[in-house]
Specification:
EC 3.1.4.-, Catalytic domain of cyclic nucleotide phosphodiesterase 4b2b, binds zinc ion, signal, mainly alpha, PDEase_catalytic_dom_sf, 3',5'-cyclic-AMP phosphodiesterase activity
Amino acid sequence: MFICILSLPLFHTFISLLTLFLGDVRVRSRAGFETERRGSHPYIDFRIFHSNSEIEVSVSARNVRRLLSFQRYLRSSRFFRGITVPNSSNILDDDYNGQAKCMLEKVGNWNFDIFLFDRLTNGNSLVSLTFHLFNLHGLIEHFQLDTMKLRRFLVMVQEDYHSQNPYHNAVHAADVTQAMHCYLKEPKLSKSLTPWDVLLSLVAAATHDLDHPGVNQPFLIKTNHYLATLYKNTSVLENHHWRSAVGLLRESGLFAHMSLENRQLMESQIGDLILATDISQQNEYLSMFRSHLDRGDLCLENANHRHFILQMALKCADICNPCRTWELSKQWSEKVTEEFFHQGDIEKKYHLGVSPLCDRQTETIANIQIGFMTYLVEPLFGEWARFSNTRLSQTMLGHLGLNKASWKGVQREQSGSGDDVDPAFEEMDSDILPQEPRLS
Ligand SMILES: [Zn+2]
C-alpha cells in the first residue's frame, strides 16, 4: 500500500534495501512451522535496523539461513565471510567472576543491578542468571537435566536475542527472569508452586522476547512482513518468540528424556505464558484478574488458577522497569525510547508514517514514561498488590510513585507545565497503542 506513494527511483532503492529475503525460505521448520514460500510482497530484513555493513548477503550461506533465526543467521553470515566476532563467552578475569558470583547470592533482591551483572559476566547475564536460578530452585536435580544441554540451550537463547537492539535484547530477558524469580518467591506463590510451574515460568521469562526485531507489530504489518502474514496480524511477535523458544527447546534436546506428552504440554503452557505478554491484551487479563480478586475465588491449589497467576506475574515482570530504583528505571526508559525513535527514523526515511511514540521530534522520554506508568503499569501493579500484599509489592509501588514524580519534574522543566500525558496512551483500546514490542 505504501509503495504507491513512492517515486520510481525511491521505490527501487526502497525495494533493494527491504527485499533481501525473497525466495523459498523455510522458517524454523524444525519448530513445527509450515514451510513458507515467500511471495512477491516486499518485506523488511531485520538487518537493516542495525549496521549497514551487515547488509550484504552471502550466497553461500543461503541454505544455512533456512534453519536459523534472523539473529543466528547474522552471526553465521559473518562467519562465512570470514569476519571474526569476539567470543562473548571467553574466560573472565577471576575478580570479575568473583564479583558476579557475589551478586548471584543476592539474586532475589529487588535492587539487583542487571546492567552491572551483565558487565561482570561479559555480556552473559542471561545464561549465568538463568542457570543459577535453575540450580537454586532445584530444577536440575528434580527434572534430571543434563547441565551441558542446559547451558547449550541457554547460550542459544541468549544468542537469539539481538544485542544491537537498545532495549529488546538479552539483558531485558535477564531482567525479566530476575523479576520473575522475585515473584515466585512471594509467600502466596512459593507455597503452592510445583517444580513444573517454576520450570515453565523461568523458561518463559528467559525466552519471552526471543529474536525480537526491535520494531513493533504495526511496523511488521505495514511492511507486509511474512511474520505478520504467518500469524494473521495477531500477537505476531509473541507468537514468533514462542515458536522460536520451542525450536530451541527441541534443538537442544534438553527435555528429550521426558515423555512426548509432557514435552507437548510444556510447549503449549510456555506459549500461554509468552502470549500473555502481548500488551494489547492487557485490558482483558486485567479485568479477569480484577474479577477474581473482587470475588476472592483464586485458589492456588487449582492448576488453572496458578497458571493464570503466573501469566499475570510474567506480565508484571515484563513491564516492571518503572517499579525499579530510579537509577535502573531511568536507564531502561532511555533504552526503550531509543528503540522507539530508531523505528521512527526508519519509518520517516521510507515514508511509512511514523508510529505513535516513535517521533524523536515531538516525543520526550518523560511524556512517554508518564503515559506508560499511568495507563499500563499503575493499574497492573495496583491489582498485583491486592493479590500479593507484601513488602515487595509496596516497594514496587513506592518506586513507581517516586519515578513518576521524577519524570513529572523533568516534564515541567522541559515544557514549563506539567501533567501532560501522551495522547497516544489515551487510546488504549485502539490497535495503535502501545504494542508490546515497544513497551515490554
Ligand atoms: Zn519483554
